[in-house]
Amino acid sequence: MKIKIQRFCKHRQPENAIIVDYEIPYEDITLLNALTYIKTTIDPTLTFSSGCKSEVCGSCSVRVNGKEKLACGYKLQEGDVVEPLRYVEILKDLVVDHSKAQETLKRVIGWQQGISPKENMSIEEEKKIELQSDCILCASCFSSCPVLEVDGAFLGPFAMTRNYRYVSDARCEDEKEKVDAVQEKGVWDCTLCGECTVACPQGIDPKNDIMMLRSKSAQHGYSDPTFLSESDDMFGGGFNPSF
Ligand code: SF4
Ligand code: SF4
Fold it and tell me: Tell me, what's the pLDDT at 17?
């Protein structure tokens, strides 16, 4: 079967990435095994990442035909076009620098601060954050998000899922601080297109988490800035109740 792989070296200009054709003499093979075959038998310079090989670590995420996939779990198809993730620096071929994406976790305070007196959670409380806790930081959702194409400062989906996971944690003691952290380039900048939810290999729903964070934001006195500016345009800077 024939596939195409985008090749790129950091020392080239991004526009100089090239697409290379490869012939894989196997059917029913995962993309990761195909990449390994190419590296060991055709071209040892082909560079890609992998770790657990069982869809757990998230290190082999790439794009196939424009959609994010984990290479270790994806069954190769004739004519597939394989590219690196988007909105992150390409280091070489399919290997990208995840630090820009993971930097967003700092911006959203994506961890538990302090120790709550409530040390043990009930089963029900654990279940509320179970799905979000399964995030493997593969950055597939980040790569799929159309907002990042026009605004590189947008927090992106997984950071807000992580934020919501801790905001919803029964032991959370800094909810307001965490909700504050997703206002700038965060919950209100998302278009709710759902691409991130489709891309997630863990079945996480970042779009829904962002909607839940909007609701939390409203509870803390925030509202959609777009709505406010549209109201200003409509009512000339102030709502007239007799309108
Ligand atoms: S729902 Fe929001 S965060 Fe998810 S891909 Fe669309 S714009 Fe990005
Ligand atoms: S939310 Fe899903 S797609 Fe996004 S980083 Fe986590 S596991 Fe990957």
Answer: 87
Structure tokens at 60: 């082999």
pTM score, whole prediction: 0.91
d(Cα 9, Cα 189) in Å, to the nearest integer?
A: 33
Angle at the Cα of 59 (from 134 to 146), degrees rounded to 5?
A: 75
Q: Quick one: average pLDDT of 39-67?
A: 97
Among 162, 193, 198, the mutation site with the greatest number of ligand 1 atoms within 8 A of its Cβ is 193
Find tokens 């509870």 and name the residue.
Answer: 219
CB of 192 sitting under 6 A from ligand 1: yes
Over 50: is that where the pLDDT of 243 sits? no
Residue 9: the pLDDT is 75
The domains found in the chain, sorted by start residue, are: 2-96 (3.10.20.30), 99-227 (1.10.1060.10)
pLDDT at 234 over 90: no
Q: Sheet of 18-23: strands edge to edge? A: 18-23, 2-7, 81-83, 61-64, 67-70
Q: Tell the residue nearest (CA) to atom 6 of ligand 1.
A: 193
- Quick one: tokens of 69? 């996939």
Q: Is 74 in the pocket of ligand 2 (CB under 6 A)?
A: no
As a whole number, mean pLDDT of residues 166-171 equals 93
| Pairwise CA distance, residues 154 & 104, whole Å | 9
pLDDT at 112: 87
Written as one letter, the residue type at 34 is A
Q: Could you tell me which residues are beta bridge partners of residue 70?
A: 61
Cβ atoms 165, 129 nearer than 8 A: yes
pLDDT score, position 14: 63
